[in-house]
Automatic annotation (TrEMBL):
Source species of the chain: Smittium culicis
Domain Reverse transcriptase: 1-159
PANTHER family found in the cross-reference section: REVERSE TRANSCRIPTASE DOMAIN-CONTAINING PROTEIN (PTHR47027), REVERSE TRANSCRIPTASE-LIKE PROTEIN WITH RNA-DIRECTED DNA POLYMERASE DOMAIN (PTHR47027:SF20)
Protein name as it appears in the record: Retrovirus-related Pol polyprotein from type-1 retrotransposable element R2
Pfam families: RVT_1 (PF00078)
């Protein structure tokens, strides 16, 4: 994940101060080296991703990913007063749509969000499951085909 998402969203959330600035500085152009035994490689830039071992950045990631469903139409759920665009747990997401067209629109919105924040999705880990109606085909996410499935495992549960 690009460092720009952290600094942009910290501004959006009105987060600031020395701690946030220190965390962002640590994420801005960090370098890594590899140690094997007593030998240490030359440092190289660490350009993307959540820095391993940094406890603050996964928390910032959780804040940032919360807006991934922004501008997604979603579905009406009985008893609720607003549409539900999907389910989100850490970096696992379920999109909810009422039609194939709505689903592709949602996938396009996710693609735009991912591209904006310089993130990539692995479409082979994604699946489209139709609850009622025709089986959806030819859906794409970040230019990759998303396959249809009769069942799908989400957070350990088979649906």
């Amino acid at each position: 994940m690009s460092a720009k998402i952290y600094s942009t969203n910290c501004d959006q959330w009105a987060l600031g101060g020395k701690l946030i600035n220190m965390i962002l500085d640590m994420h801005d152009a960090p370098k890594i080296a590899v140690r094997v035994g007593n030998e240490v490689s030359n440092p190289t830039e660490y350009l993307c991703g959540v820095r391993q071992g940094c406890p603050a950045l996964p928390i910032l990631f959780d804040f940032n990913i919360n807006d991934i469903f922004k501008n997604i139409r979603g579905v009406w759920v009985t008893g609720l007063t607003s549409r539900i665009p999907g389910l989100l747990f850490a970096d696992d997401a379920v999109l909810l749509a009422e039609s194939s067209a709505d689903l592709q629109d949602a996938l396009n919105t996710i693609t735009e969000w991912m591209d904006t924040w310089e993130m990539a999705v692995n479409a082979s880990k994604c699946g489209i499951m139709t609850i009622s109606g025709e089986l959806t085909t030819d859906m794409t996410l970040q230019g990759q085909k998303v396959n249809s499935a009769d069942q799908y495992t989400y957070l350990g549960y088979i649906m």
